[in-house]
Specification:
Strand content: 15-25%
Number of strands: 10
Order of helices and strands: HEHEHHEHEEEEHEHEHEH
Shape: globular
Distance between the termini: 21 Å
Length: about 270
């Protein structure tokens, strides 16, 4: 969940250089997670200096675990992650059903809230080849709010037809925090690269003027309040046109920051570039 990002890889390398041992929590969870997590263990073990002892602590979570035990995210997993005894953790995949299952809630969403994992940083890289331009961008997704707070209800009208509602939460606090991550990342990338720093703020405030409007204003204000961020070019992109431009000209983007749902969709789509 955390280690695959560029920043986390650097953090792991730094920790390895300073420590004689590292312990990582490994949560395969469901489906392909049971394939990629063991593979990741082998890669990490092979890449680790011989002077460092690498240990793995296997932890439970997921829909398959829920089917066996009635619990999707056991307290033991959260306790281990919060214990301070781990140097990092990796999460595989969750096979959450597309229909409602009584008592079940996505463990990855719950884990983000319990651990305060508000920043989902997803690098997208592709070298130049066969006439294609290189791609080097990072999508910074707010990870705790939006529609993923999972507050939904359904009503049945007098005519017997059902109407479903979902509550969307966008707070100034979370929006400002994720904006700072994006600006700091843009500055760090510029310091080690050849392109000027740029942040693209993704929203739909022309329709969702209250919630997305707050996200938009928060990003703008974070830049205004920090003199260091003046060096970063801030541009805005409506989410629908963002999808279009992402596939038409991905090389245009540097750091992209978005609320939870938009960030989820565009980062998954970017994996196809």
């Amino acid at each position: 969940m955390a280690l695959p990002t560029t920043l986390a890889r650097r953090g792991l390398a730094t920790a390895a250089a300073q420590r004689s041992s590292l312990t990582l929590g490994m949560i395969p969870a469901d489906g392909i997670g049971r394939e990629v997590i063991p593979a990741a263990e082998r890669v990490l073990a092979a890449a680790m200096p011989s002077s460092v002892t690498l240990k793995f602590l296997h932890l439970d979570a997921g829909f398959e675990f829920f089917q066996r035990t009635g619990v999707a995210l056991p307290d033991a997993t959260v306790t281990a992650l919060k214990s301070g005894k781990l140097d990092g953790a990796m999460f595989g995949s969750v096979s959450s059903p597309s229909h409602k299952v009584e008592g079940y809630s996505s463990p990855i969403v719950a884990l983000r809230k319990k651990m305060g994992l508000y920043a989902n940083v997803r690098p997208v890289n592709r070298p130049a080849s066969e006439g294609k331009k290189p791609i080097d961008l990072v999508i910074v997704r707010e990870n705790t709010e939006c529609l993923y707070i999972k507050k939904e209800e359904i009503e049945t009208g007098a005519d017997g037809l059902k109407t479903a509602y979902a509550l969307r939460k966008i707070s100034e606090d979370a929006s400002r925090k994720i904006a700072r991550v994006a600006f700091e990342l843009a500055l760090k990338r510029a310091a080690t690269g050849s392109r000027p720093p740029k942040v693209t703020s993704v929203h739909k405030s022309n329709v969702l003027s209250v919630t997305d409007g707050l996200f938009r204003e928060s990003v703008i204000n974070v830049q205004k309040e920090n003199p260091a961020y003046a060096a970063v070019k801030l541009e805005e992109q409506l989410v629908d046109s963002m999808v279009y431009r992402l596939f038409r000209e991905p090389e245009h983007f540097d750091v992209v920051v978005a609320p939870n749902l938009y960030g989820d969709i565009i980062s998954d789509g970017a994996a196809a570039l």
